Amino acid sequence: MAEVEVGRDGDVQTITLDRPDKLNALTRGVHEELHAALEEARDPAVRAVVITGAGRGFSAGQDLGAFGEAGDVAAMLRATYHVNVLAIRSLEKPVIAAVNGVCAGAGLSLACACDIRLASDAAFFVPGFVGIGLIPDSGGTFFLQRLLGTARAFEWMTSNRRLTAAEAHAWGLVSEVIEADSFAGRVSARAAELAAAPTRAIALTKRLYDEAATSTLEEQLEREAEAQAEAAQTNDFREGVAAFREKREARFSGR
Ligand code: T3D
């Protein structure tokens, strides 16, 4: 039975982790299906991706029931978590984590690997790892350091404190908190908005911000110049300028 559901609505692909009884805890099977879904999202017809969870969880992280079977933990992480985190970062379109509920451990890392986090007011965030004597893996040290800063990330991830959606918003971990009843509608609207934007420029912006973290100013200025030269070749650039001159809304095609 599928543990990850994939849906397409126009140019938005929605990937739903679907093990609600276990708060969408991650198994090898979930990782494999998630990977297939992320591969499918490379289709140029997809211009925005949403990752969410079924039931009252986004994801409670590694399935602790299956944990004992892990064997070589480092090899397991490389073969499962790493490929999906890297697939999200290399996807040339925006990826929204629609955090509908509980978000813990590697589920938190997965949300942080995405470009945008929208939270339901029913969501809460739990480090998880330290609660079972582990370090924040699957990008947990990388992304949280960038999102929260070292001091706050360290203090939180070593405390296992439960963070409400409102606190996560105040910390900048999520960009918006939405009432649970209107969550799905707001996520669809935001995804549609992103899918209607100039996809190539957004993809280049995503890559540039990833690279900026480890670049010198000189390197980054050069990368920006190269990326801008590429963006300036797109139909969307021509359309954007034409729309401005004609005082109308631009209709971006993503090319
Ligand atoms: O080698 C490696 O694997 C390294 C990689 C590690 C990556 C990690 O993610 S480590 C962190 C793993 N996650 C956790 O430690 C979180 C464990 N879960 C919890 O602490 C709590 O469940 C929550 C705080 C997330 C939510 O609490 P609550 O009270 O809202 O729900 P609950 O009643 O605890 O859970 C509901 C059900 O989901 C329950 O099942 P049951 O008893 O009704 O059949 C519970 O066992 C199950 N569940 C929750 N989290 C997991 C899980 N089942 C398997 N794995 C889980 N992680």
What would the keywords be for this entry?
255 residues; alpha/beta; 2-enoyl-CoA Hydratase, Chain A, domain 1; Lyase 2-enoyl-coa Hydratase, Chain  A, domain 2; 2 domains; six-stranded mixed β-sheet; four-stranded mixed β-sheet; 10 strands; globular; binds ligand T3D
Describe the structure.
The protein folds into two domains: about 190 residues, 2-enoyl-CoA Hydratase, Chain A, domain 1 (Alpha-Beta Complex); about 50 residues, Lyase 2-enoyl-coa Hydratase, Chain  A, domain 2 (Orthogonal Bundle), CATH 1.10.12. Helices cover about 45% and strands about 15% of the residues. A six-stranded mixed β-sheet has the order 1-2-3-5-7-10, sandwiched between helices. Ligand T3D binds next to helix 2 and strand 6.
Number of strands: 10
The main sheet orders its strands as 1-2-3-5-7-10
Which second-level CATH architecture of the largest domain applies?
Answer: Alpha-Beta Complex
- Within the CATH hierarchy, at the fold level, what is the topology of the largest domain? 2-enoyl-CoA Hydratase, Chain A, domain 1
Strand and helix map with partners:
Elements lengths: L3 E6 L2 E6 L10 H13 L7 E6 L3 E3 L13 H18 L4 E5 L2 E3 L1 H8 L2 E5 L3 E3 L13 H9 L1 H8 L5 E2 H7 L4 E3 L4 H13 L3 H14 L4 H15 L3 H11 L10
Parallel strand pairs: 2-3, 3-5, 4-6, 5-7, 6-8, 7-10
Antiparallel strand pairs: 1-2, 8-9
Helix pairs in contact: 1-2, 3-4, 4-5, 8-9
This protein binds ligand T3D.
Ligand T3D binds next to helix 2 and strand 6.
What's this, in brief?
By secondary structure, the protein is of the alpha/beta class.
